[in-house]
Design goal:
- This protein is an alpha/beta fold.
- It has one domain: Divalent-metal-dependent TIM barrel enzymes (TIM Barrel, Alpha-Beta Barrel).
- The chain is about 45% helix and about 15% strand.
- The protein is built from nine helices and eight strands.
- An eight-stranded parallel barrel has the order 1-2-3-4-5-6-7-8, surrounded by four helices.
- Strand 3, helix 3 and strand 4 form a beta-alpha-beta unit.
- The radius of gyration is 18 Å and the shape is globular.
Length: about 260
């Protein structure tokens, strides 16, 4: 297991300075936001080329919505995701994180023919089949992220994401697990990770308070033991708030997380 953090969490004037600080803090990877990545791919590759910190993942950053009733909105999301998957392969990330939808359903309720959830599952499976084929062609992985009940009505548990992943049936489509969302939705974080097995390809780290690990009541030791049990050896990236000075708190968090491993 390798520790990473999102780029925006790190102090510094430019990416090169941020990567230097990350290395000194003890991080091994950096996660990028996808929104502005197409405009600075060259600069990112140059900075990564002179750093020991590796690119871990791209977190979303696409426009449109995969589950919108407006076809143009779905096509916009599909096009942007394909572009980011291609960029991800170019800079060497593990994968691109996707959230199918935030909030309530947008598609109509066509009961008794089909309810919104039935429509969404079938639509997303077909879209992920297409996106997964593109991911395989370029050499990247599409990562499905479950959220929690306060942020989405759809895909709230690891098992929900695995249902879609198995329906897609492509090795280029995996899931990611976020300790914050799991602290709300999963009855037992460690058990849910073991049950998910090798479908888990990336981790987001945040405590139950959505602050740095160690500022809540999440049991990271049992979660990490479960990840070891399933042979997880990829990146775990911080996605959370920092309650204090990053220069002090981030190195402290790395030390804490390594003690939990």
């Amino acid at each position: 297991m390798k520790l990473a953090a999102q780029e925006n969490m790190i102090p510094g004037g430019d990416l090169a300075e941020k990567l230097s600080k990350m290395e000194s803090y003890g991080f091994e990877g950096v996660e990028f936001w996808g929104r502005d990545l197409p405009d600075r791919t060259g600069d990112v590759k140059e900075a990564l080329g002179s750093s020991k910190v590796a690119p871990s993942t791209i977190c979303a950053g696409y426009e449109g919505c995969l589950l919108d009733p407006d076809k143009s909105e779905r096509e916009k999301a599909m096009g942007d995701i394909k572009k980011l998957l291609t960029i991800g392969a170019d800079i060497g990330v593990v994968g691109l994180i996707t959230v199918p939808i935030f909030g309530k359903p947008r598609v109509p309720d066509l009961s008794p023919f089909a309810g919104p959830l039935d429509i969404e599952k079938k639509l997303l499976t077909l879209e992920f089949m297409e996106l997964g084929k593109h991911a395989k062609e370029v050499g990247c992985t599409l990562l499905i992220e479950p959220l929690n009940r306060y942020e989405t009505h759809f895909l709230k548990k690891l098992g929900d994401a695995i249902e879609i992943q198995e329906a897609v049936g492509l090795e280029s489509v995996k899931i990611m697990a976020d300790f914050f969302h799991m602290s709300i939705e999963e009855e037992d974080i460690a058990r849910s990770l073991v049950e998910a097995g090798d479908a888990v390809f990336h981790i987001h780290l945040a405590d139950s308070t959505r602050q740095l690990p160690g500022y809540g009541h999440t049991d990271f030791k049992s979660g990490f033991a479960a990840l070891k049990k399933i042979g997880f050896d990829k990146f775990m990236a911080l996605e959370c708030g920092i309650p204090g000075d990053p220069e002090v708190e981030l190195p402290k968090t790395v030390k804490y997380l390594k003690s939990c491993m």
